[in-house]
Amino acid sequence: MAEVSAEARIEAPAEKVWDRLTDFSSYGQWNATHTSFPHGGPETLAVAATYQENMKLMGFPAEVTWTVAACDPARLLVTKGKGPMGVNLSMSYALTPDGDATTVRIDGEFTGAAVSLMAGKLKESATAALRESLRKLDGLVA
């Protein structure tokens, strides 16, 4: 298993951050691992919604099927994913209002036999991608 996380304070209200975070048409502008949604993002962002995403991590392309596990607008989005080679993923985006700003924390988890072979490199690469994503997200909403 590989667990990753990153956190940043974004100088914008949680609702504004949430709107950008869940605007799947502009996902590639901030998400460093995203390459495309082959069939578009979820039609409705709600628990049990599913969608496919093409990603690139550690230089390798992967298609992941995501299912929304929790959704509390402007507060929390949790998705569970199934990727290639039996890899399971979990991503949690938590938004905490702080005056006129928002603390955004992203936690990710990768499990499966293939992960154990490259857990160290995966953790390093994914953590760097999360930090880059938060930096880009901040630039879009602040």
UniProtKB/TrEMBL annotation:
It comes from the Bacteria. Pfam families: Polyketide_cyc2. This is Polyketide cyclase.
